[in-house]
């Protein structure tokens, strides 16, 4: 049987014992938040006892440690009661969960404040260091879980969770106080050959704290590594979904191009020598074609009366259906919103940033060139060139999954007039 199953079984057994008391608290009208607050006040009392023991007691007077341990265990009961009152009294709330977590952290920090103060005051310097390390580990155990759950993954488990820490501190502190009455507060155990004692009465309390310092940090590190594995898997799934979304966008782009023509894919033409080149189109910026038919998307500059690009819609996108005697047609709503519509953002009065709505990552710029005419610029062959055409080459495939071999961009280098071509494999 695993530690987690033993821990769960023990927790359920304790719940059966305390449930009658829980129902009584519900009848009294106590809320989970009120019980959580009582738990915090009791832990403040624990810190106060340790501080009183540091100020009023001497190094050999361990009764304060014993009384503090008893109060730790009593306060720990309230840590269990608030959750059960919320469950059995149907008083669960999101804020209640947060309130419980925050006050639990305050309770634990005040507890360790008292312990560290006591140990330092009575010159248990090494033990106080381990107590401080245990406090760090305790906080990190809780923080790794909270941060992981905030990122959407479960992060539980480990040996030194809050209930174990409370029980360990409470029982060992109580045992230390009781033992001092029987074996004496100044009891020391020496081993021949070792000049210093290896055990004393106070060790009943300080050795478990040292163990806690180690185990809490091991638990925090294990939770961190477990979270890394879960988050890596989550990121991989997200990347896979993103890739599938990108593929879907390309498919939508290809399908909507052929929306007016029955599509039975055949081997593509490389290059499409029989595809017409649009000519004599006023203010044409660039065009887009793809196999298997010659229907063409035209991207045309839309000017206002002052001769500047329209601020809201600087590019007019429409069809030339060469398969239907070269008829002009507007994009359908779906084509405009999901595939061939162009999104624009004004940079200056005469410059716009553009992208297809189906693929926002491919950025283009509309601006005036050296010839005082407007052109669309994009990166082609590692140069900021004037875009002329885009061609999607398909070889076979199906209606839903066309076999896209590459996308070809043709452009002109504005500096030299050189014709540029770049093919991107899909």
From TrEMBL:
It holds the Pfam family CDP-OH_P_transf. Residues 286-423 form the DUF4833 domain. One of its GO terms (cellular component) is membrane. It comes from Arcticibacter svalbardensis MN12-7. Belongs to the CDP-alcohol phosphatidyltransferase class-I family. The keyword DNA-binding does not apply. Keywords: Membrane, Transferase, Transmembrane, Transmembrane helix. This is CDP-diacylglycerol--glycerol-3-phosphate 3-phosphatidyltransferase. The keyword Ligase does not apply. The lineage of its organism: Bacteria, Pseudomonadati, Bacteroidota, Sphingobacteriia, Sphingobacteriales. The chain crosses the membrane at residues 33-52, 64-81, 102-120, 166-184, 204-225, 246-265. Its EC number is 2.7.8.5. InterPro entries: CDP-OH_P_trans, CDP-OH_PTrfase_TM_dom, CDP_ALCOHOL_P_TRANSF_CS, DUF4833. GO terms for molecular function: CDP-diacylglycerol-glycerol-3-phosphate 3-phosphatidyltransferase activity. It comes from the Bacteria. Coiled coil: none annotated. One of its GO terms (biological process) is phospholipid biosynthetic process.
